[in-house]
Amino acid sequence: MAAGLLGVLYGSPVLAVDTPLTLPEAQRLAVARSGQLAAQQYAVTAAREMAVAAGQLPDPVATLGVNNLPVNGADAWSFTRDFMTMTSVGVMQEFTRAEKRAARAERFDREASKALAEKDARVAAIQRDTALAWLDRYYAEAMQAVIAEQKRQAEVEIDAAEGAYRAGRGNLADVLAARNALVLLDDRASEVGRKASAARIALARWIGNDANAPLAGSPAIDSIRLDPGTLEADLAHHPEIAVLAWKEEVAAAEVRMAQTNKKADWSVALMYSQRGPAYSNMISVNVSVPLQWDQANRQDREVAAKLAMRDEMRAEREDMLRAHAAEVRAMIAEWENDRERRTRYEREVLPLATERTQATLAAYRGAKASITDVLAARRSEIDVRLQALQLDMDTARLWAQLNFLDPDDGLAPRGKGNHPKELR
């Protein structure tokens, strides 16, 4: 709400400050300060580096050896006297199929995209939680202002009750009732002060020492970035749904890896063997390939397992999308209902409570009402104002949860292609 509306609602002037902390600024600070986002970026970098490594051939293997070395007789432990003794050096290379290396690299590319989607989800969560902490502090301080104003009025009423008692127009019970009202206001102020302190601590968790800065006016909470008409399509790109979609893509890449494993990789080894000076040196070439003699129970089972994992991710994503859509629709309905009630409080309930207090106070000054009637009217007005603030706070919290389901691009730009559909 605008700063002027707060003055109408809460009966206290809004102080001007030089450097107020706005909600967007608090969110920007929280995003910039977050170590979680830096950690998520490291995960992205790690996956991309692994994608490059997975696309390469395996390292060649060097071999050194001695073959057919005598251990007894006249030629024992001699490297040159027996014609079969050889010292050998060689190299072996496994030639992994290109489609298999591409499938492995693709799997880590999908892992990097999933990490980016998780980063988007983390940004949205930071913006939402920062907004909730900012709003909690804002409304707690607004409640403090209401109670402070009412305490000033209560002190005036104590003075009036004591004056009437001394003049013989009142009684001691009225004085005690007025003092009791002030004590109750002090108690309520202590409770609201505790909430304001807790809200300031919660905000400091996100933005550090800047949480102690004075707050600017409340943001406009009467509009959200969601369109109820395209809710399902919009929520399909929600960061948490996008994370599940990328998990499905990772599982699909693992399916392709398992399918490429049905074709065996070949290995080639070259060896040079040196014998005694009286004998010829030799070269050996060996080719090896695994014998996949039981594909039905090994490779085929692996493919089936990966397919099941992919289908598991798909079912989980579809179920979460339906649940999320129902939850968001319920929140939108509650937010719209709270907005309607706020309007009713602003136009009817709050003015009536204020008029009742003023009328009772005028009647008391005309000796047509007791101080007890004034205190009751004042207490009712306080309750109504605090209820209006609580309703305003509930509406604002719903607005924050709805408005920051996705990261706000103006605060933290999102990467392109953070959803599988966008990539394709």
- Coarse shape: elongated
Question: H/E series, N to C?
Answer: HHHEEHHHHEEHHH
Q: Briefly note the structural class of the backbone.
A: alpha+beta
| Low-pLDDT sequence parts | 1-17, 412-417
| Proportion of residues in extended strands | 5-15%
CATH topological fold name: Outer membrane efflux proteins (OEP)
Going by CATH, the homologous superfamily would be Outer membrane efflux proteins (OEP)
User: What is the helix fraction of residues, given as a range?
Assistant: 55-70%
The average pLDDT score comes to 86
Short description:
This protein has 424 residues and is of the alpha+beta class.
Which structural traits does this protein have?
alpha+beta, 424 residues, 4-stranded antiparallel sheet, Outer membrane efflux proteins (OEP)
SSE blueprint and pairings:
Layout: H1 3-10, H2 23-33, H3 35-54, E1 61-67, E2 86-95, H4 98-166, H5 172-207, H6 231-235, H7 239-260, E3 266-274, E4 282-288, H8 299-365, H9 371-403, H10 420-423
Antiparallel strand pairs: 1-2, 2-3, 3-4
Helix pairs in contact: 2-4, 3-4, 4-5, 4-7, 4-9, 5-9, 7-8, 8-9
Notes on the structure:
By secondary structure, the protein is an alpha+beta fold. The protein has one domain: Outer membrane efflux proteins (OEP). Helices cover 65% and strands 8% of the residues. The protein is built from 10 helices and 4 strands. It has helices at 3-10, 23-33, 35-54, 98-166, 172-207, 231-235, 239-260, 299-365, 371-403, 420-423, and strands at 61-67, 86-95, 266-274, 282-288. A 4-stranded antiparallel sheet has the order 1-2-3-4, with no helix packed on it. Helix 8 (299-365) packs antiparallel against helix 9. The longest helix is centred in the first third of the chain and has 69 residues, at 98-166.
